[in-house]
What does this fold into?
Amino acid sequence: MLGWLPALLHGPIPQKFDLFYLKGSFVVWGWYSSRMLIGFWVGVAGWPERWWLRGPLCGLLAMLPPGFVSLGIPGCGPPCMLLNELTGATVGLLVAGFARVATAKDRL
It folds into this structure.
């Protein structure tokens, strides 16, 4: 559910891709699927050991591929990549924190 949070605030806009003759409604699923995979990466990762480092790191890495796509979009570029990486790190931190509370594990 946390993967949808950035979309509610401001996610990738399909119309930006439609301008370049891409099917924008399909392309934005790259961002959504990356954000939703953050929980998986946090869950399977064992490094770094501290949950508050692992969550943001997994979020940054999960959002890196769509971040590179943002660099290639005219009118978007580095600011969009930075925002995507920031939302990825934030979602990762929240997922790791919720997992730690839900499982009561110190190592998670």
Remarks:
- The two ends are 19 Å apart (CA to CA).
- The chain has a mean pLDDT of 82.
